[in-house]
Design brief:
about 400 residues, alpha+beta, Heat Shock Protein 90, 7 strands, about 60% helix, 11 helices, 3 domains, rod-shaped, 7-stranded mixed sheet
Length: about 400
């Protein structure tokens, strides 16, 4: 038996009031059997409650009340007529009750069928959505597999000349007359060549890129190399690149090479989107972690404090429309001209950051620039000192 609603209680109260009123009328005019037909009203009201037990009790009460009129004194010779008349009333009441119950039950079945159909339709829509998503995922996987095969073949061919370039760079650093500034730039070139060779070795040795091997590092160790590497390109285009990094930030959980690659990708996008005389600012900071960030980070970061490091790259470039921003992290999506970008930079960057237990987000406004924010697990330096003492 289902719980009664406020509407059902109101209907029962109204039916009860009608029943009592008709009983009173019958008491004042027992000879006039027409008043007994009024019991149809409470029966019809009770049918809307759709409860067989309540309906049975109501019909029984109306039948008893109808025949109770026979207890009132009547004129001689009219008793048999009164029995017949009230039996007709009872027959009408029983017919009305049967038709009412049948009608309400049919309505209930129709409503149930509509609800079931609606549920089935919703399930079909969900299944269709999942099928479309699975199809899209399969298409992306196939494209990534094709690109992986292409990259592996290209990497194999590029490896040899890169080793030759690295040897000449090392020889150049040993030339007499090399200034300290030139040595610094040669060291950057040599470091980046080593990184490229390592990436190629990863591609050739496995179908999947090397998984991050993060550890607790100073934030400046992670951010500064990327800024130093990209600064000449910004200077050449007339864009001011600024790094705003407070001192005494907590330690960041990072694979230095992987996060370096992410920052270079993000800075390259900012460089392409920003015109001359523009500005690009790298801002680092820390804040309290949300429960989701804390759960996600502690899955991979040993000793994470309840805080995260934020690395924000803000540019004053052209910005992105909403429809492009929503697809920015999809593989192979790019707004650059053919041959200028693969559409994999932000996709791979987000995958790398998520593998650290972090998150990569993007906000943009058309004509006002773009902000890319990276959050990574953090650990207070005091916690590291206590850990080392133990």
């Amino acid at each position: 038996m289902t719980a009664m609603t406020h509407r059902d209680r109101l209907v029962l109260a109204l039916a009860t009031a009608c029943f009592l009123i008709i009983v009173v009328i019958e008491g004042f005019a027992p000879v006039n059997v027409v008043g007994a037909y009024g019991y149809v009203l409470p029966i019809l009201l009770v049918t809307t409650v759709r409860n067989r037990t309540i309906m049975l009790v109501t019909v029984l009460a109306c039948v008893i009340a109808t025949y109770s009129g026979l207890l009132q004194p009547t004129k001689p010779g009219r008793f048999q007529a009164a029995i017949i008349n009230r039996s007709v009333v009872v027959g009408v009441l029983l017919l009305v009750a049967y038709l009412g119950v049948s009608w309400e039950e049919r309505k209930a079945r129709e409503e149930g069928a509509r609800a079931a159909l609606s549920q089935e339709t919703e399930n079909l829509l969900k299944a269709n959505t999942q099928l479309v998503q699975a199809k899209d995922q399969l298409n992306r996987s196939e494209r990534l597999a094709a690109v992986g095969q292409l990259v592996a073949s290209v990497a194999h061919e590029v490896g040899t000349p890169l080793h030759s370039i690295a040897w000449h760079v090392q020889a150049l650093a040993e030339e007499p007359g090399v200034t300290p500034d030139m040595k610094k730039r040669v060291a950057i070139i040599d470091d980046q060549l080593t990184r490229v060779v390592r990436i190629i070795q990863d591609l050739l040795s496995s179908t999947r890129p090397r998984q991050p091997e993060p550890k607790w590092l100073l934030v400046e160790e992670v951010v500064s190399p990327s800024a130093v590497l990209m600064e000449p390109a910004f200077h050449e285009k007339g864009i001011v690149l600024t790094v705003d990094s407070p001192k005494d930030l907590p330690l960041v959980w990072a694979d230095k090479e992987k996060i370096h690659q992410v920052l270079v990708n993000v800075l390259a996008n900012a460089l392409a989107a920003t015109s001359a005389q523009g500005n690009v600012v790298i801002t680092t900071g820390s804040r309290e972690a949300t429960s989701i960030e804390l759960d996600r980070g502690r899955l991979v970061a040993d000793g994470m404090s309840p805080c995260v490091i934020t690395i924000e790259v803000r540019d004053t470039g052209c910005g992105m429309p909403d429809e492009d921003m929503q697809k920015a992290f999809e593989p192979f999506f790019t707004t650059k001209a053919i041959g200028k970008g693969t559409g994999l930079g932000l996709f791979l960057s987000r995958e790398s950051v998520m593998a650290h237990g972090g998150h990569l987000a993007l906000t943009s406004e058309l004509g006002h620039g773009t902000i890319v924010t990276m959050t990574l697990p953090a650990m207070q330096r005091e916690s590291m000192q206590k850990k080392e003492e133990v």
